[in-house]
Amino acid sequence: MKEYELFIGPQHPGITGNMMYHLWAEGDTVVKAECNVGYLHRGFEKLMESRLWMQNIPLVCRICVPEPDVNEAAYSMAVEQLMDWEVPERARYIRTIVLELARISAYLMAIGGYAGSIGIYTLPQWMTGDRDYILDIFEQLTGARVYHIYIWPGGVRWDMPDNLPGLIERTLNYIEKRLELYDDVLFRNRIFFDRAVGIGKIPKEKAIEWGVSGPNLRACGYGYDVRKLEPYAAYDEIDFDVVKYPELGKFEALSDGCDVYTRMIIRRLEIEQSIDIVRQALKKMPEGDILLKHPNWLRWKVPAGYAFARVESSKGEYGYFVVSDGGLKPVRVHVRGPSYTHGINVAERILKGANIADVSQILFSLDICPPDIER
């Protein structure tokens, strides 16, 4: 038998969530890959059309569990456009802090999962434990560890407790010290160099055509970051540079980019970037209101029209297209999530010709979030 079939997922630890890849292989070389979803909660877009405007906030955060806040932010921003609302300045800064903490949390999960995919099993244990400290912050701020339901149209749900800035600063200091340890275990490890350099390459000339975004696009040398190009929240008042190949700081550019190695280095560097952004936001955050006065949300009618809002997540660009007919519920909500592109369009192409042993690390390097595909 020259060609055989192989299934990875939905329960296999080599997959980034509840999804499955159907592989066809010759020997240990993949000749075809097909993404197969439907194993997780799905159909969010249609569900949103049958719910009141505010009822969708607890729903949208489930579209990407490791980083739920980006969906709350993008949906709220689209509704705010329709309402012609200007979010209070303090709320904009709090949103920035929440989004960047969520980004750090998501990167710890992504990098830890990737390390496990190449057999460095110490790092996922450490990073899962360190991520818990960020979840402690979210628990104090929002009352929840995973689904926060905190960013609402018009601002944020409630103000930041007085003791929270100190807790955030201590947590950032701790994670910053841990980065050197992560570097020694993974990013300066010969296993990482041998396994990641030149593997899972996205053709640079095809990256934009294929819809690549986020760290995966910046690893190809494109300085595209929604936070910088189309600022939202308080990003227009924060000083930061876009992290992209070949500017890899203290890490050596061992390839010409677009591969697993570069994608993971970009994520590692963006942890430091997010730490700096949170510190700036804490220092600059003004006093004042945190939420605009809402109508009765049970009878809340949003003016007719359509709006599109987008944000930069750890996985790439999230966009929400929302249509209102002036009623109590949206007529249409469409989610443009990065994992739909990376998990199907990109993964199915670059897995062709890969070694079976590299399939999991390629998928983890793309940082795919399955519910985003099934939305």
Write down the Rg. 21 Å
How many helices in DSSP terms? 14
Strand content: 5-15%
Shape: globular
Architecture overview:
By secondary structure, the protein is α+β, with helices and mostly antiparallel strands. The chain is built from 14 helices and 8 strands. A 3-stranded antiparallel β-sheet has the order 1-2-3. A 3-stranded antiparallel β-sheet has the order 6-7-8. β2 (20-26) and β3 (29-36) form a beta hairpin. α4 runs antiparallel to α5 (122-142), α4 (89-117) packs antiparallel against α11 and α4 (89-117) packs antiparallel against α13. The two termini are 38 Å apart.
Task: Based on the model shown, name its key terms.
375 residues; 3-stranded antiparallel β-sheet; Cytochrome-c3 Hydrogenase, chain B; alpha+beta; single chain
